[in-house]
Write a structure and sequence with these properties.
Length: 576
């Protein structure tokens, strides 16, 4: 053998070894966890500007990626329908809410057969699928006395489920609580009786961690998909006393001071442009009628977020303990912006609020009684549930929202709230954590994205094939664009425009331009997102050709995705 032959053989061996090492560095198909929080604003977790203590989420961001221009669907049901299916909500039949059937194809209020869930797609690739928490993509309805479960999680690709079918309720005694396929009472559940009492946020976290551990014990050869869908921090403001205590006195300086501190932190971290102003504040702390009550509302809200973060820590610990953290993609996001609804704050506005009685005044409920009300009439031990301005929230006998001014703080620095499609209503944090698969960890990414991208990402990373048919019906192709290239440290492919509609509020984001409007009768507004993401300067009249082009684009999308014909008049076309 000549030296030349030996050299070629040696070179070939070296190339082969390099290839093997490169393949070793390529992660196997990851586990995928999607964590969705409820009714929280862009600035409500620590790494996005908040004073609320969220060390677990902050740590995931520090070791992963933080996105600043990711969007949701403006409200609970539409967001969940889009997230689960990779389609716009109207394409799934949930253009409004599950209990708001409006008659046309996009507004049936129930998942249709043209869509498939992430779980249904990943099941075909060998994944096991779990969900803990709020479902809210099908109504709780009965036919001839029997519950219609065709769109419950176990019928939509998931192997195990614990959570609530309905979208809101007491965190101390939630309605429509389900294990598997059966309604249960949390107080007569033999599988879960925590020592410190039932609290729904903790129950979601504990079941998510349990699913991880039991998957490792029984199905370790398979990857898994886990959807963790919290109701925190949706009203009512319910919190454990130990979590409330951490925030006592933290909000006594009022809305503007808290908001200014969040803005400063966001600018320092590079989350927003330092040249953008702060959007207008709706209220003044000096004019608040009952400052102690308003403080307590935000204290309870902060405690709810804190409790959720603690639970996420327990979930991460379960991954670490079972050796699954390294190759698990964790995505955290929120379903809409901060909620300005004054739920439970209107009664007793001009008189002292009813205080809790010294002892129960109603008969106690049986442990196995199912809670059938979103707003319970009473606690399990017989105290009437109280609402009204001045009722200090937190305990099980209260049912109060935190109100518009604190929602404005949550959405710092953006404008408007849940329901609307201005930035305050549709902007969400997105944290991505995947030690085996994310390069450039600890960086902030400014790519524009939408929750329909989660399905596309799951398909690419899992190697799954999206089905052309399901339940005998041709499926609609997913609308999103995978984030995998961003995880690899590369630029993302050019993103197609993103569209929005909810309750007549409508928008399109195309590159640096955003066209949006409030209500069916509202005029179109145009904003330059590079210069003015707080939407302070409407330039529709300055750039009429761009406005006209985007209106046309939106209308083409709206017709394709069953947004129109819309159930209300006047038609959009009359409001250009």
């Amino acid at each position: 053998m000549t030296f030349a032959h030996l050299g070629r053989i040696t070179s070939a061996i070296a190339c082969l070894l390099a290839l093997v090492k490169a393949q070793d560095r390529q992660p196997a198909r990851p586990n995928i966890i999607v964590i969705l929080a409820d009714d929280m604003g862009f600035s409500d977790i620590g790494c996005y500007g908040s004073e609320i203590e969220t060390p677990q989420l902050d740590a995931l961001a520090a070791d992963g990626l933080q996105f600043t221009q990711f969007y949701n669907g403006a409200r609970c049901c539409p967001t969940r329908a889009s997230l689960l299916t990779g389609l716009y909500a109207h394409q799934t039949g949930i253009g409004w809410m599950v209990d708001s059937k409006k008659g046309s194809q996009g507004y049936q209020g129930d998942l249709n057969n043209q869509c498939v869930t992430i779980a249904e797609v990943l099941r075909g690739a060998g994944y096991r699928n779990y969900v803990a928490g709020k479902w809210h993509v099908t109504p709780l309805k009965r036919t001839e006395g029997k519950l219609q479960k065709h769109n419950w999680p176990m019928q939509r690709g998931f192997d195990r489920y614990y959570g609530t079918i309905h979208g809101a309720g007491s965190l101390w005694d939630p309605n429509t609580l389900v294990r598997g396929n059966e309604l249960i009472s949390p107080y007569a559940d033999p599988d879960y009786q925590p020592k410190d009492g039932f609290f729904y946020t903790d129950a979601i976290s504990d079941h998510a961690a349990k699913f991880v551990r039991e998957h490792h014990e029984k199905h370790d050869a398979q990857p898994f998909f886990l959807y963790v869908s919290y109701t925190a921090a949706h009203w009512p403001m319910h919190a454990r006393e130990r979590d409330l205590a951490k925030y006592r006195g933290r909000y006594q300086e009022g809305f503007a001071t808290v908001r200014a501190r969040r803005l400063k932190k966001q600018r320092e971290r590079g989350l927003i442009d330092k040249e953008w102003p702060l959007s207008a504040a709706p209220g003044s702390w000096d004019k608040v009628v009952d400052q102690a009550f308003e403080e307590r509302c935000m204290e309870a809200y902060a405690a709810m977020v804190d409790s959720m973060d603690q639970g996420i820590g327990r979930l991460v610990a379960s991954l670490r303990e079972t050796g699954q953290l390294e190759n698990t993609l964790i995505l955290y996001l929120q379903d809409n912006g901060g909620c300005a609804e004054g739920y439970g704050r209107g009664k007793n506005a001009n008189k002292p609020p009813a205080k809790r009685a010294d002892k129960p005044t109603l008969p106690a409920m049986a442990a196995d009684a199912l809670q059938d009300r979103m707003i319970p009439k009473q606690t399990r031990d017989g105290y009437p549930v109280r609402q009204g301005y001045g009722v200090m929230p937190g305990a099980a006998d209260t049912y109060v929202a935190y109100g518009r001014d604190w929602a404005n703080v949550s959405n710092t620095p953006f404008r408007m709230y849940k329901h609307w499609v201005h930035e305050g209503g549709i902007t969400t944090p997105l944290i991505a954590h995947w030690p085996a698969g994310i390069n450039s960890a600890g960086t902030i990414r400014h790519e524009v994205g939408h929750l329909v991208d989660i399905m596309a990402t799951a398909i690419e990373l899992s190697g799954a094939t999206y089905p052309s048919k399901s339940r005998g019906t041709e499926t609609l192709p997913p609308e999103g664009v995978s984030l995998a290239s961003v995880f690899a440290g590369n630029d993302r492919p050019t993103r197609a425009p993103i569209y929005f509609e909810h309750e007549g509020n409508r928008a399109v984001r195309d590159g640096k331009w955003k066209l949006c409007a409030k209500s069916p009768r509202g005029k179109w507004e145009l904003y330059d997102m590079q210069k003015d993401r707080v939407e302070a300067n409407n330039v529709a009249a300055t750039f009429p050709e761009i406005t006209k082009r985007l209106v046309t684009q939106w209308e083409v999308w709206a017709e394709r995705c069953h947004v129109i014909p819309w159930p209300y008049k006047p038609a959009y076309e009359a409001n250009r």
